[in-house]
């Protein structure tokens, strides 16, 4: 019996990936970063049994807590998070003013699976069917979804009554209830997420666990790459060539060489009641399966949107909760919210039933920078998001806030006696409530993003001085080096990027296979 059990765990496709401490001196491919894209790349490249692949990941493995969808917020500021912060904003376009030190946190996953372990699991896509294993039959059988891929996608098995009010309220406002991962994006739906049987389905779980026994793939965790080693050009190509990497593990620097390529996939920069927990643990259902607390997703058109109606400019994340819902324990901390703001706006709501819509800008014009602070690879970069430098971004978001407020007035929400919070944001009381200047001030104070930075190594032609990689994701000016992750997006996608970045991992792997004659 014991032997049978042992064998089972060895071949269980959900057993944990093996952390290889003693790596070889050379591999065909070295993949730096095992996040949304990197996990896919490591899987797909090691499909060729004659190639050897090393995946170096700065963080460790996932935890039991990271498996629980509704506890996503508790991973931020933990060891699984790089804990980046934005630099204070410029005076001419201030933001994050309600946050301590005027700085917003920018969480990023430092763990096998990367930010797919920290994210809210909301799945948005259009045509990335190769990876998908959709487990909602009414979706799986449509032309826009597929089954049998590595990545499990489904609705949360639990939802509050407000989730349906959200969708119904949207219909009252004239929007269709639809699969917004289908033919058209504008509309309202119950959120689809990267979850499997009520647990998070990170890219580590989806793409690395099932192949943990492949002999040609080594995964080294707690291994932070600090340098790409450049070698002499080959005689037929004068460009410098990436020949390996230097990394630190257990306080010791090591080097490992790449015969073919180095692939950079390092990314663009608690419990409720015992009964709820037991329901989750025994039945894989219940409120803990909620996608980071997000139950509904919608894409809406403000008056500034493209007149076709097909290119929405605001996305809603709907949650039957708010900043106060955990009694001030964690959400206010991950928001870095000033005490004065929390105590004035949210603390009085501790006993109240609340819901929140986050209006999110889909096509921001304002662009920011991530710059190296110094030559020390362990130093954190300077992050300057430059939010709201374009007035259009502010105006569009204000219209998004107004549509969200209208939703509160629909019959679907009035059944619950819904009403907006009228307490004015400290720092904005000089403006009358619900005026444009008030909302602009509120946006510049409670500046909230849902952590989708991309584009720091954008794809573009060689003559574009801001382009880092070519259309085959090869770094301009050198050989043997590609970037395959969210940073290659020339512009941010209009929706949650995890699905598209997994697609970049798939596409990037296919490009590498093609270029090395393995198709
Ligand atoms: C809190 C949060 C919520 C989000 N919610 C959603 C959502 O609901 N839906 C959605 O679609 N998207 C969401 N996102 C965004 C999405 O998860 C990310 O955009 C996506 O995971 C990024 O993929 P990536 O491969 O580019 O980078 P990552 O997944 O961040 O992977 C980069 C990996 O590289 C490793 N690494 C970095 N530097 C080094 C180094 N020097 N050496 C070795 N390893 C290194 C990191 O530790 C990490 O594992 C969210 C993100 C966050 C942080």
Automatic annotation (TrEMBL):
Gene3D superfamilies documented for this protein: FAD/NAD(P)-binding domain, Glucose Oxidase, domain 3
InterPro entries: FAD/NAD-bd_sf (IPR036188), GMC_OxRdtase (IPR012132), GMC_OxRdtase_N (IPR000172), GMC_OxRtase_C (IPR007867)
Superkingdom of origin: Eukaryota
Keywords for the protein's UniProt record, in alphabetical order: FAD, Flavoprotein
Cofactor: FAD
Occurrences of domain Glucose-methanol-choline oxidoreductase N-terminal (ranges): 27-270
A matching Pfam family: GMC_oxred_N
Protein name: Glucose dehydrogenase [FAD, quinone]
Organism: Ranatra chinensis
């Amino acid at each position: 019996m014991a032997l049978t059990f042992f064998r089972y765990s060895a071949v269980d496709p959900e057993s944990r990936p093996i952390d290889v401490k003693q790596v070889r001196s050379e591999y065909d491919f070295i993949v730096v970063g095992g996040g949304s894209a990197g996990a896919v790349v490591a899987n797909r490249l090691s499909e060729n049994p004659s190639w050897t692949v090393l995946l170096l990941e700065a963080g460790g493995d996932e935890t039991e807590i990271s498996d629980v969808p509704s506890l996503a917020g508790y991973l931020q500021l933990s060891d699984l998070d790089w804990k980046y912060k934005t630099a204070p904003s410029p005076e001419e376009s201030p933001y994050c003013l309600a946050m301590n030190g005027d700085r917003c946190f920018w969480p990023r996953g430092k763990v096998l699976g990367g930010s797919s372990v920290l994210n809210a699991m909301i799945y948005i896509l259009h045509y990335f069917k190769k990876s998908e294993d959709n487990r909602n039959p009414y979706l799986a059988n449509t032309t826009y979804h597929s089954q049998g891929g590595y990545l499990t996608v489904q609705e949360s098995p639990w939802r509050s009554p407000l989730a349906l009010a959200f969708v119904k309220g949207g219909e009252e406002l004239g929007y269709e209830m639809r699969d917004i991962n289908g033919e058209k994006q504008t509309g309202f739906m119950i959120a689809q997420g990267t979850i499997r049987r009520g647990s998070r389905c990170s890219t580590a779980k989806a793409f690395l666990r099932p192949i943990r026994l492949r002999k040609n793939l080594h995964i080294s965790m707690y291994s932070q790459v600090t340098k790409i080693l450049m070698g002499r050009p080959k005689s037929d190509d004068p460009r410098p060539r990436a020949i390996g990497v230097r990394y630190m593990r257990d306080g010791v620097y090591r080097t490992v060489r790449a015969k073919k390529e180095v692939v950079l996939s390092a990314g663009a920069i608690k419990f409720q009641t015992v009964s709820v927990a037991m329901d989750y643990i025994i039945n894989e259902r219940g409120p803990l399966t909620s996608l980071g607390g997000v139950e509904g997703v919608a894409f809406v058109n403000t008056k500034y949107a493209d007149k076709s109606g097909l290119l929405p400019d605001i996305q809603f994340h709907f949650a039957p909760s708010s900043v106060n819902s955990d009694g001030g324990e964690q959400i206010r901390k991950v928001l870095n919210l000033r005490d004065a703001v929390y105590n004035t706006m949210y603390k009085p709501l501790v006993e109240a039933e609340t819901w929140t819509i986050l209006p999110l800008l889909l096509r921001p014009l304002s662009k920011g920078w991530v710059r190296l602070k110094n030559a020390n690879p362990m130093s954190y970069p300077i992050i300057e998001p430059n939010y709201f430098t374009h007035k259009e971004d502010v105006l569009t978001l204000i219209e998004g806030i107004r549509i969200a407020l209208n939703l509160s007035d629909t019959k679907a929400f009035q059944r619950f006696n819904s009403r907006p919070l009228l307490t004015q944001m400290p720092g904005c009381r000089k403006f009358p409530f619900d005026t444009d200047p008030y909302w602009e001030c509120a946006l510049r104070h409670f500046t909230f993003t849902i952590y989708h930075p991309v584009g720091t190594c954008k794809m573009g032609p060689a003559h574009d001085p801001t382009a880092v990689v070519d259309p085959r994701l090869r770094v301009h000016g050198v050989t043997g080096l590609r970037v395959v992750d969210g940073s290659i997006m020339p512009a941010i996608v209009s929706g949650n990027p995890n699905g598209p970045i997994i697609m970049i991992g798939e596409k990037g792997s296919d490009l590498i296979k093609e270029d090395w004659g393995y198709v």
